[in-house]
Amino acid sequence: MSRRRAPICESKGTGENMPRIAIYPGSFDPVTNGHLDIVERGLKIFDKIIVAILHNPCKKALFSIQERKEMLADCLKQFPNVEIDTFDGLLVDYAAKRQAQGILRGLRALSDFDYEFQMALMNRRMNREIQTVFLMTGLRWIFTSSSIIKEAAQFGGDINGMVPPMVGRKLKEKFRHRP
């Protein structure tokens, strides 16, 4: 007997079927292989994933929002059920606006869990209809983060295998032109 999940869920009270949509939020500055792993595995749970780049004016990003959108689009082009978007404001408001049922988050370490757990509780308090789904990062990516990768790239470290090749080239270009 095969265990196959239903690709759609019934919307509350209407009897209509709708796709299961998740928002995968983050800065993606830059996108890493760990991020891509979460998207690929998330597609086994959700019908569609919206990779949503948070516009956070308080954070100094290396790549512009447009550069990050282009890198993500290139890295995820093989997945027709993945959309790239940007947002600002509250994540649960954005998720509701996009008719998402879930927020997808990756966890690497205990320190991630503490922060993510607090955020999930706050999001649930603001909108009980949107569920947070945590996926443990694959062991290959457990110590991979965008900030560590940027730091290694800045000083000429070998980041091959941690980011897609195109992202590695873009990082080298950025740091070649920095003082």
Question: How would you characterize the overall build of this protein?
Answer:
There is one protein chain. The protein has a domain at 18-142: HUPs (Rossmann fold, 3-Layer(aba) Sandwich), CATH 3.40.50. Helices cover 37% and strands 21% of the residues. It is built from 6 helices and 7 strands; from the N terminus they run βββαβαβαβαβαα. Strands 5-4-3-6-7 form a 5-stranded parallel beta sheet, with helices on both faces. The longest helix has 17 residues, at 110-126. The radius of gyration is 17 Å and the shape is globular. Residues 1-8 have low confidence and may be disordered.
Number of strands: 7
Provide the succession of SSEs. Answer: EEEHEHEHEHEHH
> What is the gyration radius calculated from CA atoms?
17 Å
Give the C-level CATH assignment of the domain at 18-142.
Alpha Beta
Q: Treating each run of at least 4 consecutive H or I residues as one helix, how many helices?
A: 6
Tell me roughly what share of residues is in helical segments. Answer: 25-40%
Please give the largest β-sheet: 5 strands, parallel
Strand line-up across the major sheet? 5-4-3-6-7
- Identify the overall geometry: globular
**Straight-line distance between termini:** 61 Å
Could you please say which CATH topology of the domain at 18-142 applies here? Answer: Rossmann fold
User: What percentage of amino acids are in beta strands?
Assistant: 15-25%
Mean residue pLDDT: 89
